[in-house]
C-alpha cells in the first residue's frame, strides 16, 4: 500500500470520527433538552390545579396567579425556540417561588391537604427539572466545546452548528434567602 493512500485513509477515518462526534454531541443535547421539556410540561400541567386550589384563598395575590396562568399559556405554544423555553422557565420558576412564599401567609391554605399534595408534587417536579437542567447544561458544554475546538470547529462551521444556550440562574435566585422574612 502506498504512503499517499495510507495518509488518505487515515484522514478519511479522522473526518468520519469528527463527523460522528459532532452528530453524537448534537443528538445528546437534543435528547436531554427533550427530557427537560417533558418535565416542564409536567410542571405546567400541575399549574391549573395549583391555581384552582389557591385562588379562593389568595385574593390579595391575584396578580401572581394571573402571571402564572399567563406564563403557562405561553408555554403551551408549540413553536417556541429552545431559548424562549429557557427564558420562560426562568420566569415560571420565579413566579412559582413567589406563590409558594405567599402560601405561608394563609394558615388555612397551608394546612389544606390539596395544597400540601400540590406543594409536594411541585417540589418533586422542581427537583427533577433541576437534575435535568444540570444534565442539559453538561451536554451543552460538551457540545459547545466540540464545536469551538480545533479541528472539529471547521467541520462544525461547515455543518452550520452554532453555540447553544444553557439554563442559568436569574439574578433574583442568586440572592441569599432571608428566612426571617419568609416566616412572619
From TrEMBL:
Keywords: Coiled coil, Membrane, Transmembrane, Transmembrane helix. The keyword Cell inner membrane does not apply. Its main location: membrane. It is a single-pass membrane protein. Residues 115-142 form a coiled coil. The keyword Cytoplasm does not apply. The chain crosses the membrane at residues 6-24. It is found in: Membrane. It holds the Pfam family LemA. GO terms for cellular component: membrane. PANTHER family: PROTEIN LEMA. Belongs to the LemA family. This is LemA family protein. The lineage of its organism: Bacteria, Pseudomonadati, Campylobacterota, Epsilonproteobacteria, Campylobacterales.
Amino acid at each position: 500500500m502506498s504512503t499517499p493512500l495510507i495518509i488518505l485513509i487515515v484522514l478519511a477515518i479522522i473526518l468520519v470520527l469528527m463527523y460522528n462526534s459532532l452528530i453524537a454531541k448534537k443528538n445528546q443535547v437534543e435528547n436531554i433538552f427533550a427530557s427537560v421539556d417533558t418535565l416542564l410540561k409536567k410542571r405546567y400541567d400541575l399549574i391549573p390545579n395549583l391555581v384552582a386550589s389557591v385562588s379562593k384563598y389568595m385574593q390579595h395575590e391575584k396578580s401572581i396567579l394571573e402571571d402564572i396562568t399567563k406564563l403557562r399559556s405561553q408555554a403551551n405554544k408549540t413553536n417556541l425556540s429552545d431559548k424562549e423555553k429557557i427564558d420562560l422557565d426562568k420566569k415560571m420558576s420565579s413566579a412559582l417561588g413567589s406563590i409558594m412564599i405567599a402560601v405561608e401567609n394563609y394558615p388555612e391554605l397551608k394546612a389544606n391537604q390539596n395544597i400540601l399534595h400540590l406543594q409536594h408534587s411541585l417540589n418533586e417536579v422542581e427537583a427533577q427539572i433541576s437534575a435535568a437542567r444540570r444534565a442539559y447544561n453538561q451536554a451543552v458544554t460538551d457540545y459547545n466545546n466540540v464545536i469551538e475546538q480545533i479541528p472539529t470547529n471547521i467541520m462544525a462551521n461547515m455543518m452550520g452548528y452554532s453555540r447553544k444556550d444553557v439554563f442559568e440562574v436569574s439574578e433574583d435566585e442568586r440572592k441569599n434567602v432571608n428566612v426571617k422574612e419568609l416566616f412572619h
